[in-house]
Recover the amino acids of this structure.
């Protein structure tokens, strides 16, 4: 795509729109989280600000702004300010490579991609920015000069880097199927219902677990575990600096939902695309695709909340054990299995249904393998416990 | 596809927008909120108990080991990206190459596990 | 071209700040920023995969390790007071010698006449082409790298594993 000044202006407007959507979704996620919490716990939930409490996020924002911008006396002042800013910055930058929709015809033959940047490294951009998310928490926690903050920050950093490994490994199997790092190419390979979830059920489960851990959401919210660490890394924070940490979490939820939709659920693909193109034209069809992606992302945000009010949190050793000894070997198995899914049908000229079959056959193989491993390892543990 | 550095230009817009949002919010919240200081309030919050010693004590060496292992595994995973992208053209040869690479990775992983480095219960 | 000058100036300033800032945490953060600027240079060279790797490995992994190490050390107790005149003199001599060597080396560099158009391909730095070369022509070094990682893992465990009865906090 030629980068003319028209396209550049359109890109600038597009970036603004995506910002507005992300911030709006993040703000209203706080409202819906409380609504869902109330529903799951049989309460009423927020109902004072406006009809059905619909203005609650606005009220919260005003409250956050009017609170004292407090900095503890013996903290490192600039690092204390920098921490939440870094968190927010990394959260806002991730969405650049996500293809929110197909091309839009702007007239005069100018085609415009509904995507910030379509670059060769694509998904590695997301991976890179996510790996920087550690700094916001680590710097903020260290600068507070509070024991609980430091512990929370160190915990968060260890957790994030541990789950990053399994996340990186689970993306690899997607890349093997698509043959490109570009997010646009990954989505285009999944058009007309060939969604990656059919071929990568194990990879998706790995990815969503890692997404939970990367966003510090329950059951992985040990960095801010209030029963042990007061508020974790944001114990000393107040006003909009605290707001940034909380807000960044909700933005990360939305963006990781969009990433999951892009990688595993066909991105902006939706059923009956051809019919819509024939009756309403391509622009309308692609705008519906934009809506479809947002809808999928919002569904994942709902899953995040659903899990939060369903599962209790892990203990720290359980969390690290799951990340290292659980997810990494499974992810490596998944890479090898994906290799077989691709190579075997090509070798014997089988249809795509056969590869889906092989992909699903991976789940029982994995379960049996894990069962055998645990019966061996578990037996050993029991023996040593008895010997003591 | 023909990728060029100019593909990255829109990212400057995004960086600018993100920075503008962050700076404006920070300035606004600093300017709007009240400022009331007191000795007890400026202290660190540790549930009302008086704080003893420096918060920045050395931390467990386990975290450090996790970080060092993370660096090693991360580089190995990065090596797998160009392989995964070319997987279909490399075919069975590439598959076997990666089996060798991953078995060495797995050997190191099992060594780390056997040494009990990742054992958090002790 | 103006962008290149801007980026280079930013890189040099942040690299200098790494050395000049008193607080080690500030140094680490400036170093992260320096890596970002270097990634910007990679983008200008159209080496996009290297740019991503630079961010993920250096800024995302190694610098986190550095931060951990700095947080592990007790900054106040371990502050070095050993800056006697002798060490300052030794530092100046070593630094000056390195500077002279660099200047002498750069004077000898032949920059040539620019890119050879017969072999020039702007897409060389893309991950597809990189993988083709790495996994066909340089297969043995690649497999040896995995042995290097294995050795590094063993070394890290030997250094870091705590023995029974040692204080842990």
């Amino acid at each position: 795509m030629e980068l003319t000044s028209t396209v550049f202006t359109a890109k600038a407007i597009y970036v603004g729109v995506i910002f507005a959507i992300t911030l709006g979704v993040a703000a209203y996620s706080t409202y819906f989280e409380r609504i869902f919490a109330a529903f799951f716990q049989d309460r009423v939930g927020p109902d004072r600000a406006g009809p059905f409490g619909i203005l609650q996020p606005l009220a919260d924002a005003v409250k956050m702004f009017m609170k004292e911008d407090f900095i503890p006396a013996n903290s490192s002042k600039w690092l204390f300010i920098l921490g939440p800013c870094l968190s927010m910055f990394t959260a806002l930058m991730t969405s650049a490579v996500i293809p929110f929709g197909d091309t839009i015809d702007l007239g005069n033959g100018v085609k415009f991609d509904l995507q910030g940047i379509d670059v060769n490294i694509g998904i590695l951009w997301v991976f890179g920015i996510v790996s920087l998310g550690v700094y916001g928490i680590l710097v903020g926690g260290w600068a507070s000069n509070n024991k609980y903050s430091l512990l929370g920050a160190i915990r968060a950093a260890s957790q994030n880097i541990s789950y990053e490994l399994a996340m990186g490994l689970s993306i690899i199997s997607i890349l093997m199927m698509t043959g490109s790092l570009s997010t646009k190419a990954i989505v285009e390979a999944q058009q007309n219902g060939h969604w990656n979830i059919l071929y990568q059920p194990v990879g998706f489960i790995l990815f969503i677990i890692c997404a939970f851990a990367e966003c510090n959401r329950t059951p992985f919210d040990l960095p801010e575990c209030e029963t042990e660490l007061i508020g974790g890394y944001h114990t000393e924070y107040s006003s909009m600096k605290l707001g940034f940490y909380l807000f960044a979490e909700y933005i990360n939820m939305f963006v990781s939902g969009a990433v999951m939709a892009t990688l595993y659920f066909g991105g902006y693909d939706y059923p009956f695309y051809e019919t819509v193109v024939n009756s309403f034209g391509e622009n309308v069809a692609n705008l519906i695709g934009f809506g479809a992606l947002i809808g999928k992302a919002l569904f994942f945000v709902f899953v995040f909340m659903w899990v939060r009010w369903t599962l209790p949190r892990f203990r720290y050793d359980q969390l690290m054990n799951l990340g290292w000894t659980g997810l990494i070997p499974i992810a490596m198995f998944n890479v090898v299995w994906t290799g077989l899914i691709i190579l075997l049908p090509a070798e014997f000229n089988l249809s795509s249904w056969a590869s889906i079959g092989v992909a699903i056959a991976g789940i029982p193989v994995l379960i049996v393998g894990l069962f055998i491993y645990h019966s061996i390892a578990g037996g050993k543990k029991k023996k040593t416990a008895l010997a003591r | 596809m023909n990728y060029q550095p100019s593909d990255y230009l829109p990212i400057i817009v995004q960086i600018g927008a993100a920075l503008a949002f962050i700076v404006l919010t920070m300035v606004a919240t600093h300017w709007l909120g009240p400022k009331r200081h007191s000795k007890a309030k400026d202290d660190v919050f540790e549930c009302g108990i008086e704080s003893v010693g420096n918060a920045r004590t050395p931390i467990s060496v386990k975290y450090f080991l996790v970080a060092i292992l993370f660096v090693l595994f991360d580089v190995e995973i990065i090596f797998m990206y160009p392989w995964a992208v070319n997987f279909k053209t490399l075919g069975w040869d590439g598959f076997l190459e990666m089996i060798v690479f991953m078995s060495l990775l797995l050997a190191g992983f099992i060594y780390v596990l056997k040494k009990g480095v990742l054992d958090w219960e002790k | 071209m103006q962008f290149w000058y801007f980026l280079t100036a930013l890189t040099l300033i942040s690299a200098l700040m790494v050395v000049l800032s008193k607080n080690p945490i500030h140094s680490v953060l400036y170093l992260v920023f320096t890596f970002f600027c270097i990634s910007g240079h990679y983008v200008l060279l159209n080496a996009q995969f290297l740019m991503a790797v630079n961010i993920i490995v250096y800024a995302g992994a190694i610098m986190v390790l550095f931060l951990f190490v700095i947080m592990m050390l007790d900054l106040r107790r371990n502050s070095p007071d050993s800056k006697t005149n002798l060490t300052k003199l030794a530092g100046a001599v070593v630094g000056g010698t390195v500077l002279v060597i660099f200047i002498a080396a750069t004077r000898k560099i032949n920059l040539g006449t620019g890119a050879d158009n017969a072999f020039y391909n702007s897409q060389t730095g893309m991950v597809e082409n990189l993988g083709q070369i790495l996994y066909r022509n340089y297969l043995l070094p690649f497999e040896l790298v995995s042995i290097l990682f294995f050795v590094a893992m063993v070394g890290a465990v030997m250094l870091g594993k705590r023995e029974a009865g040692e204080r842990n906090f």
Chain B has a mean pLDDT of 81. Residues 87-114 of chain B form the longest helix (28 residues). Chain B touches chain A through 68 residues (CB under 8 Å). The CA atoms of residues 59 and 65 of chain B lie 12 Å apart.
